[in-house]
Amino acid sequence: MAEDTMKLVLIRHGESEWNKLNLFTGWTDVELSETGEKEAAAGGRALKEAGFDFDICYTSRLKRAIHTLNFVLKEMDREWLPVVKSWKLNERHYGALQGLNKADAAAEHGDEQVKIWRRSFDICPPELEPGDERDPHTQEQYRDVAPDQLPYTECLKDTIARAWPFFEDEIRPQMLAGKRVLIAAHGNSLRSLVMKFEKMTPEQILEVNIPTGVPLVYTFDRDFNVVDKQYIGDPETIAAKINAVANQGKAKK
Ligand SMILES: O=C(O)[C@H](O)COP(=O)(O)O
């Protein structure tokens, strides 16, 4: 008989070199920092200690998420698992903001404007110019993607428009077939999934921040209603990490 609940584990990549510098990153393909590598490995150990195992993993085309997944799988002795890498799980494209410091942007444009750029549901950051060196149309990682699907900027709504169908068409059938799934992705691609899982309003998702390198476990019934949600780790440390993400876009006092 099929189990009546299904678990899904999400993990945001560990701290990246650009998280450390507090820069808008989006699709910029930066490495994990040393702290980020440690966070990712700790996430893997926590999953192993809590008795988790997986059958298939999903990640983005960006190395901070791919390397996070590798660290997790290494700790779990599961490096042989199948891994699907899709651009549809990439971070939200941060347009022309990519490379700017978040606190400096807040000092220049105000905390409110930066919060809109970071967390608004349907307002996009300024677009990249076509042909800009950051333009995904010119990047090898996306050479198999139809040009009209690649963004010059994205709001959360746009990220949902690619990440959610990917979940529904690719990941959900695996879960319904009894496969245990791990997704290693990004702050905003994971917020897209969280918004849909929890049927949140744009106002509710505005206040959701996802910490780096901490496994987040959802339990669903067979109709994909959420019956439980929990981070694995020390609640105080996790709360402090969530708060730090929320504060990245405030001007330094
Ligand atoms: O792309 C980025 O800058 C981060 O990975 C996510 O940033 P945010 O928390 O500012 O949206």
TrEMBL record:
Pfam family, one: His_Phos_1
PROSITE patterns: PG_MUTASE
Stored SUPFAM superfamilies: Phosphoglycerate mutase-like
Site (Transition state stabilizer): H186
Pathway in which the depicted protein is active: Carbohydrate degradation; glycolysis; pyruvate from D-glyceraldehyde 3-phosphate: step 3/5
Keyword terms, alphabetized: Gluconeogenesis, Glycolysis, Isomerase
SMART domains registered for this protein in UniProt: PGAM
Record: active site: H13, E91
Keyword Isomerase on entry: yes
Signal peptide bounds: none
Superkingdom of origin organism: Bacteria
Residues noted as binding substrate in the record, renumbered to the chain: 12-19, 25-26, 64, 91-94, 102, 118-119, 187-188
UniProt GO MF annotations: phosphoglycerate mutase activity
EC main group: isomerase
Catalytic activity annotation: (2R)-2-phosphoglycerate = (2R)-3-phosphoglycerate
Catalytic activity, EC: 5.4.2.11
CDD domains with a match to the protein in the record: HP_PGM_like
Similarity comment: family membership: Belongs to the phosphoglycerate mutase family. BPG-dependent PGAM subfamily.
Family annotation (NCBIfam families): pgm_1, PRK14115.1
Function: Catalyzes the interconversion of 2-phosphoglycerate and 3-phosphoglycerate.
Record-given protein name: 2,3-bisphosphoglycerate-dependent phosphoglycerate mutase
Protein source organism: Paratractidigestivibacter faecalis
Lineage: Bacteria, Bacillati, Actinomycetota, Coriobacteriia, Coriobacteriales
Gene: gpmA
